[in-house]
Write a structure and sequence with these properties.
Keywords: Kinase, Transferase. The protein has 302 residues and is of the alpha+beta class. The chain contains 16 helices and 6 strands. It has 2 domains: 168 residues, no CATH class; 96 residues, no CATH class. The strands form 2 sheets. A 4-stranded antiparallel beta sheet has the order 1-6-4-5. Strands 2-3 form a two-stranded antiparallel ribbon. The longest helix has 21 residues.
Length: 302
């Protein structure tokens, strides 16, 4: 009996060791410093500077094969382009969807407009009779996007702030009343109560050990957007070499968002408050991190 128990414990330990070696997704999702983010932008700007519209377009293009063959022998130019959507709607799907040529052409035309046209939040309505596959089409499409968004090719980054507690404590006493000062007052109050409540003491110790407060961006904005608008063109001019992408970035409509969009209200407030507090942009950007944006429809991410 003792031998059976020892054997079972050994098997469990081996299984846990196997999981510990093989599960590494959490490492890929760790935040990186803003400096590291800029290095990645320098190495691969076309991948880093993508919004959700461009990323979705790239996903579709990566899964659809295009054939430039005339579909009518009496015409020199093709009436329709032949698209093979097998990898997008059929492969890996429990319920495959088979679009006809007309639908495939309209769908791909809409994807081109999504990237190069006016990038606005819209509601698209797919109308058709009952049982024509509308839900199957949409589920397969979103499933492929979720898979693509969590790969290196489809990865995007979002803002996450890591506010250094010690630096805030050093500055906060001389700063006008603000959310940071109110929070620091709360911390000091909790610290005073640690002797009377061990649970509060444990919670406070954990905060001190972490040494930062992590605040993710509610809008999942690209970290580059934290840079003030009037500085973005100069920063990109320094980071990106003179090539075709740089010309597209500075001239084409699809990249206007890089120079015109603002960060969410929370991130903007944090940035300006920190800048006013420390009077040093380098210190502010040292608290800015970039986190890979993990898409998971079941839990509402993405």
């Amino acid at each position: 009996m003792m031998e059976d128990t020892a054997s079972a414990n050994g098997s469990v330990d081996q299984a846990l060791s196997l999981l510990n070696r093989n599960i590494q997704d959490y490492q890929r999702l760790q935040p990186v410093s803003f400096e590291t983010f800029l290095n990645m932008l320098n190495a691969n700007p076309s991948r880093i500077l993508r919004n959700i519209f461009q990323s979705f377009h790239d996903m579709v293009k990566a899964h659809v094969d295009e054939y430039e063959e005339p579909m009518d022998e009496d015409r020199a130019e093709p009436i329709f382009t032949r698209y093979d959507c097998t990898r997008l709607f059929v492969e890996g799907s429990d319920n495959p969807y088979f679009p006809d040529m007309l639908f495939a052409n309209r769908f791909m035309k809409q994807m081109e407009y999504l990237r190069h046209g006016a990038q606005q939040n819209r509601i698209y309505i797919f109308h058709g009779p009952h049982g024509c596959g509308k839900s199957t089409f949409l589920n397969n499409l979103l499933k492929k996007f979720e898979q693509y968004a969590n790969t290196e090719e489809g990865l995007r980054y979002e803002v996450v702030w890591r506010l250094n507690i010690k630096k805030l404590q050093e500055k906060c006493h001389s700063f006008p009343p603000s959310a940071f000062e109110q929070w620091m007052h709360l911390v000091e109050t909790k610290e005073a109560e640690t002797n009377s409540d061990p649970h509060i003491k444990d919670r406070f110790v954990r905060v001190q050990e972490n040494d930062f407060i992590e605040i993710p961006c509610l809008a999942h904005d690209n970290p580059f957007l934290v840079i003030p608008k009037d500085q973005r063109r100069g920063v990109l001019d320094e980071l990106i070499k003179n090539d075709q992408f740089k010309w597209q970035l500075f001239t084409e409509k699809e990249y206007e968002w890089v120079f015109t969009e603002d960060t969410c209200t929370v991130c903007s407030s944090i940035y300006h408050t920190l800048l006013e507090l420390f009077q040093d942009p380098k210190t502010v950007f040292s608290m800015l991190f970039a986190r890979p944006y993990y898409v998971n429809r079941r839990i509402g991410n993405g």
